[in-house]
């Protein structure tokens, strides 16, 4: 293998400079500012600040509303990641069975990913609005007193459904690519040996999709924790009664609505630590089961 030699020692750093600048300005600098602000008690208008150390963290971790947000986030994130990946895998497997018009079906499946999170949330709220929603009426006919604006369980179900629908297309795209990379000879050999489709899937297809599944697990976890803010803001606004207030939405609510800067910054630092810990856990323990063939 030939080793690439640059004509000047500074050239590699110059090529990396734009990406390094973006990373420093938009990632590390805001993280450092959030950590600094979490140690301060600030005036809402930024006119004065007092160093309070870890007082903001102690207050946040002892707040029942914050502990409720942790529970809501755990239920919401686990549900969205599991449902979005499971449904996408099922649809990808079914799409691979189609002989005619396969590309057309794939295109239809990918389109929802182009919808903005807030728009996706409004679409689902419009369909399931208790007053005029087109899909809310069948629920009432079935005897379900559907009202996500007042019922906490209904609100949680609605935002989980909207967030799942928004992410299915992304997962579908990667699962289709993973299925296409599986050698057909393995599946044909299993069929000749008399293995059923279900047996072939769980013993051949799914294990070979492990790298794709692990990658999507990490991506979907981050998506559920951060990128679903627009859906929650558009559909429920964290209500009713903080039943759908996730960690990222509470950071926004306390920092930008209630102007509690120090506690909001402390919450953002805690959320960053949670994401880093989850990602490290996934790479440390779950990746062991991933086989890169």
From TrEMBL:
Name of the protein this chain belongs to: sn-glycerol-3-phosphate transport system permease protein UgpA
TM regions (residue ranges): 70-92, 104-127, 155-179, 200-226, 265-286
Span of domain ABC transmembrane type-1: 70-282
Key words, A-Z: Cell inner membrane, Cell membrane, Membrane, Transmembrane, Transmembrane helix, Transport
PANTHER family in the cross-refs: BLL4140 PROTEIN, SN-GLYCEROL-3-PHOSPHATE TRANSPORT SYSTEM PERMEASE PROTEIN UGPA
Record carries keyword Ligase: no
Pfam family, one: BPD_transp_1
GO annotation (BP), single: transmembrane transport
Protein family per UniProt: Belongs to the binding-protein-dependent transport system permease family.
Membrane topology: Multi-pass membrane protein
Gene that this polypeptide is encoded by: ugpA
Organism for this UniProt entry: Paracoccus litorisediminis
GO cellular component, one term: plasma membrane
Protein's cellular compartments: Cell inner membrane; Cell membrane
Purpose of the protein: Part of the ABC transporter complex UgpBAEC involved in sn-glycerol-3-phosphate (G3P) import. Probably responsible for the translocation of the substrate across the membrane.
